[in-house]
């Protein structure tokens, strides 16, 4: 079984044919999908999809690029919505200094609020980081000193040193279809050596379709293609890699087991 640890089933490019997309994923052996939100306005729809589909779960959070639009989302709001039985994670949150669509200080404050909610609920954190390695790591470390939490660096494209630091904090790392791109040599080197017990795979659908699906909207079925590339890269049998990463999915997102 494959598990897609990060997809946006309610985004344009997927939502219009959601049932067909889910059918194609299941036909390729995808048995678990985590449907991610980036704005409060998406929470109801993301949760509703998870309520309707037994192999889909939900994450609620505010993307760093949206932090300026939701300055009043506090820990209590996140905790209350995360109490829903189909919500198994908080995020995506983090820092994005590439687009600069939200003030950096507000991004950092939102990031810390999400971590506090994870600590209070015991749910894992979904971390987005782009062009912000130093600040992301500083906040992750500082917050870990204030109390343990768990989580995953989603769509990992950072340095090998950042990967090592995240692993040292007990976090998981999720690899997207970017690893299949021919110019992703540094990422491929890191992905080849990640410990199997901390590895997840994702599509970030409808984005980042892997080879051989470049140019198409991404969808959860493509997690099988990324897994096949990773298995070859790491010299591991595909069925073993699929089983281990799926087991990691249910270990990290523990509410999904029940």
From TrEMBL:
UniProt EC number: 3.1.-.-
Molecular function in Gene Ontology: hydrolase activity
Keyword Iron-sulfur in record: no
Record's keyword terms, sorted: Hydrolase, Metal-binding
Top-tier EC class: hydrolase
PANTHER family: D-AMINOACYL-TRNA DEACYLASE
Family statement: Belongs to the metallo-dependent hydrolases superfamily. TatD-type hydrolase family.
Protein name per Swiss-Prot or TrEMBL: TatD family hydrolase
